[in-house]
Amino acid sequence: MDPQQQFLKKSEEAKDLFIPHLSTDPVVFGFDQSELKVLLLQMTYRKQWLLPGGYVKKDEDLDAAAERVLRERAGISDVYLEEFAVFGKKNRSEFYFEDFDESLWHKQRFISIGYYALYNPDNANLIIDEFSEKCEWIYLSQLSEIELAMDHREIIEKALLTLRERISYKPIGYNLLPEKFTLSELQKLYETILGKELNRGNFYRKIKNLGILRKLDEQRRGGAHKSPDLYSFDEENYKKALENGLNNW
Amino acid sequence: MDPQQQFLKKSEEAKDLFIPHLSTDPVVFGFDQSELKVLLLQMTYRKQWLLPGGYVKKDEDLDAAAERVLRERAGISDVYLEEFAVFGKKNRSEFYFEDFDESLWHKQRFISIGYYALYNPDNANLIIDEFSEKCEWIYLSQLSEIELAMDHREIIEKALLTLRERISYKPIGYNLLPEKFTLSELQKLYETILGKELNRGNFYRKIKNLGILRKLDEQRRGGAHKSPDLYSFDEENYKKALENGLNNW
């Protein structure tokens, strides 16, 4: 059976399980100490890259659908996904299934609920699903070189914007940095997300003022320069800041 | 025809126009110099209060649906609505139509896309639609005393949380304050949104540092105290800050 026929067979089997108008698209960003990557897949019968998304089941909470879809399509199950935006232009999916005839239920208009997460890619053991040929981390800097399906480029851009806004009012870094880290490593994380360099003095002052760091009685040894102090997150204050926001006013 | 019969008749007429699984709920906050209010309506055949929401048409962009629904149900058409969250629990609408039989298409599961806006209620000339008995501004402090339909209380709370987070990274106040205002009036707006008092010195310092204010060569006269300086927004910088965020880092 060729890939397109296989897709049609599976699609027919799944027809009654799903709400045809509703899909979720998880945007998982990976941070590898210097650059951001995003998790994408390529299906067997198409050249375009896709977010690892899928339809919502009729009897399934939306959040549960996003988790299931990411698990089924990429093998990732230990990530907290946060809903960030809805993609609902009426023609957004019109061309994606244009080589199928009208009997395909996917041809009905569907909107997509965008979820995002910032994730440590070292934790991921990616698993490719039966419809895909590849499931990979693609550097954001390389996105302009690949073809993306439907409005998935817009979804990724909006997720990145949301992530950048979020670090104005929520702490970030837990599970992305080693347990003990230097301020310079934390600054690098912020710079990577923001896509620009920050003034070191300002950053150190502001980040210390948040009250979410604990200075340890240890230094990072071995560099060419003066050994820098090590920090860890103050778990209680970090959690509180996550719940209540950083309260800039 | 009693209200419930009228609803059934209109519902049957509208059946083919809408996606039954998809509605939008606009949360419009009004600021009246001292407190926040929210726009709600009460339908003729029910005691519960509702957000002025409705279904999305099959051939309609999502954003356009939110605008249309607010216009049709409350008469408001000059407000910029921003999508903020999706409400997609599988049982969320289960009980709302329980006094109708299964043939009613509304009984199918639907998710709701939440939109919100902060609005000057002086601009509003509220118009009640044919299904409603009331369309009113209700103070947030009075919400605990009324009965709200489905998960609409949760939708309002999430909208308020989003608004509070938003003022960490976006300017606010344009179209809500008079053209010329005092810093104390601006502080009152922030305090009303945040639901708490702010330190005056800190607030003045931070708000001036944003670069979005122009100090005028005028004072507010007539009070018992020293006449305070008047300010207006620097339109260009305000717009820039709206687009790029306030850049706390």
Automatic annotation (TrEMBL), chains A, B:
The protein's name: NUDIX hydrolase
Recorded superkingdom: Bacteria
One Gene Ontology molecular-function label: hydrolase activity
Domain Nudix hydrolase stretches: 19-162
The entry's keywords: Hydrolase
Gene3D superfamilies linked to this entry: Nucleoside Triphosphate Pyrophosphohydrolase (3.90.79.10), Winged helix-like DNA-binding domain superfamily/Winged helix DNA-binding domain (1.10.10.10)
